[in-house]
User: Fold Guanylate kinase from Oncorhynchus kisutch.
Amino acid sequence: MSGPRPVVLSGPSGAGKSTLLKKLLKDYKGVFGFSVSHTTRDPRPGEVDGKDYHFTNREAMQEDIDTGEFIETNEFSGNLYGTSKCAVQDVRAKGLICILDVDIAGVRHIKETDLDPIYVSIQPPSIEVLEERLRGRATETEEKIQSRLEAARIDMEECNEPGLFDIVIVNDDLDESYEKLQSVLKEEIIRVQEGIKS
Ligand SMILES: Nc1ncnc2c1ncn2[C@@H]1O[C@H](COP(=O)(O)OP(=O)(O)OP(=O)(O)O)[C@@H](O)[C@H]1O
Ligand SMILES: Nc1nc2c(ncn2[C@@H]2O[C@H](COP(=O)(O)O)[C@@H](O)[C@H]2O)c(=O)[nH]1
Assistant:
């Protein structure tokens, strides 16, 4: 499919991906669109079905996986997550830059497709800061915090693998991280904005 290149945002749970992507969606209306993933986890307070995720159950999601409706799926912290073909097509059909929020296994799966996105890893300054953010968000049980921290340690090691990401942004100061993110996406943003004007 032609159009702007999609963007994959990855990085440990709690590093700040959703915070940054929500800023992009708010500041660049008509430029970005979010690829709404499926998940079998329960919604958090304030999360909206069809907007934040398609909340589903394992049986229904497995059926859709078996019929080839997903680009990629992964088990994360006891739940299934996945990007459907429709989620990406819906955004790209509107000519928008499609943003995908996926874990590092999702990144590796997407690398095997022809999507050709810009790969961005959002990393915390340290595992201690990440733990503080996860606890501060107050959305996870102690068991889930521990499993997310375990996954984070692996992600923090693997993110520097040569060729895996186009950029690794250490999200210490939020404004600085947002500047870096806008800067790496500048070319695609301009492409869409100029398309809108003409
Ligand atoms: N630069 C920052 N400094 C301080 N706090 C931050 C920063 N960036 C994000 N946070 C806070 O850290 C918490 C986790 O951020 P966020 O929910 O965006 O993470 P995430 O990477 O999207 O996590 P998940 O993958 O679990 O959805 C939030 O409470 C957010 O407000
Ligand atoms: N491989 C995929 N990973 C995904 C997808 N959607 C979200 N995620 C990742 O899951 C964890 C946990 O997310 P949370 O919302 O429960 O905190 C996080 O790392 C996301 O990036 C997906 O479609 N595929």
Q: What stands out?
A: Residues 174 and 185 are 17 Å apart (CA to CA). The longest helix spans residues 174-197. The first strand starts at residue 7 and ends at 10.
